[in-house]
Design brief:
With 454 residues, this protein is an alpha/beta fold. The chain is built from 18 helices and seven strands. The longest helix is centred in the N-terminal third of the chain and has 23 residues. The structure holds 6-O-phosphono-beta-D-fructofuranose (F6P) and magnesium ion. 6-O-phosphono-beta-D-fructofuranose binds next to helix 1 and helix 16.
Amino acid sequence: MMAADRTVHGVPPSLSAKVVGSFAYLTVRDRMPTILTRVIDTIHRNKNKFFEEYGEEGIQAEKQTISLLSKMRNELLTDKPLLELTDSLQDTESWNQYLQRQQKQQGDQDSVSWFKSPWLYVECYMYRRVQEALWLNPPISDYDVFNEGKTQSFFESQQAMMTLCTYVEGLNKNMEGLSKNQLLEHFNKLLQVSLWGNKCDLSISAGQDNSQKTSPIDSLDSLQPFILVNDSNRVWSALISPQRPGQSKETALVRVDIVLDNSGFELFTDLVLADFLVSSRLAHEIHFHGKSFPWFVSDVTANDFQWTIRQTTAANHKWMSKSGVQWMSHLKDGAWSYHDHPFWTQPHEFCDMEADAPDLYATLQGADLVLFKGDLNYRKLTGDREWDHTASFHTALRGFGPAPLCSLRTLKANVQVGLQPGQGERLGSQDPEWMTSGKYAVVQFDNAKSEQKD
Ligand code: F6P
Ligand code: MG
């Protein structure tokens, strides 16, 4: 047995498609090739557009990109070794170094390959190879193969967005008169709306419609029993307690960072939460962190972020467009800012961030609270490892803690920590798919600096 396959110094092995029949295995065998087929189909369907924009060169690029993607799909299906990247971008070297690192960890007997290596790594690698195929074909390098799905999911959730903005309008009208308890109540609601917004990603459904159709506020009560761990009181405390040298409690400047996940309804809920934090003066500054290229089908890029705010502003609904205008002004006056960093589109566990992306780690240290949205961020927080369900969140973070942090995640992969003894077993017997269906969620908080460990 190799080191990568067993628990070493209390750190369990990575989830991998090596375990036949596991969720990782089914993802690599079925869902990932399906996503690649859809990508190929999207590029092919846009052939005429490429021709109109770039003439014959566009057609050549379309053909070559498809040929590279088909080749990769075949490598995946036949469990071939992962290949070094051949484009020369900012992150190419670091991806290739990571491959060597994996090979070292795995030992020399077997090559690092799609079914034999950590699932987190190979899944991230697939999205980076999609980009490589595009980047090697310059006229269409910037084409976002997932854009159609992302915009469609935005439009399909419009009714829920309108409902949410109507709620926000009512809230804003009375904001000044709210007691602390009322503020807490609204905070909890909007935190949960943002939590459940994470149900709507397009990766788990391999690109199929997964938009929000029901009223997000009205559903909260019935969803409550599905929140397996709810540390929202600790999140609230982190928000209201920051006090830096020279600041009183009343004037403390609070910065919240939101590490975004999906476009569409989820991003919308994150923006609503961020707007509430600023309007209520719980925070004075929000830093959003997104991806620098299209990622895991529906993740937010700078383009999606700007587009969503523009669309909201242009909506044919009074309160929705008012929200959009408000969001624009947060961006203009600097209360909101959007950031990206290559680390978010790399395969590393977050416990490696301090060593492998010290600049990003230092940036996050400036926050009073960091909200990590979604399943993939949870997998990276916990290293996507075979932890016991009763292992604490703090243990699974393995020292990662640039600032007080909270994961807002619906469960879509089989890693879950921080449960009570017996809770995982009970859930498993009631609902065998509890870890992957997106039906359950967690709000899990950790503050590495606090005395009290989880
Ligand atoms: O396999 C399902 C999956 O693609 C996971 O890899 C990933 O964790 C998840 O879906 C994406 O979910 P989210 O958008 O919440 O990160
Ligand atoms: Mg996602």
